[in-house]
Design a protein that fits this description.
Elements lengths: L19 E6 L2 E5 L1 H30 L1 H28 L4 H21 L2 H19 L4
Antiparallel strand pairs: 1-2
Amino acid sequence: MTQSNFSDETETKTEVAKIDLAIEEPGNITVTTPQTAQFQQVKDQVITVVSELPELVSNFFTEYQKPLINVGLVVGGAIGIKLLLAVLDALNDIPLLAPTFELIGIGYTAWFVYRYLLQESTRQELLAEIESFKDQIVGKKS
């Protein structure tokens, strides 16, 4: 006969959810489970973040003021150029307006050449004006 060592050591583990009961008022029982406790923790964290949001935003804008201004200027410039091109395209569709602008441009170019480029003294005057303008933009040389 063979002897069998049959051990019956299997354990069955069952998790029982902890439920806390709190009686706040007579007839009003509050049931708190781990899920509601976790929800309460998340809710408290969200409320904390939302209450500190104005200070966080203020600190962000204070810290990154110059880069934000630069980004705003670039975006504003791009929008301005897009708007200018749209207006010019609309003006270009008006009959006789485009040839009129071309004549004005040719006339101004002829005047500029006559005024500044034909004589040496006027070329020197133009170079002096360009240097003056450059000094105003960049700054004077030390």
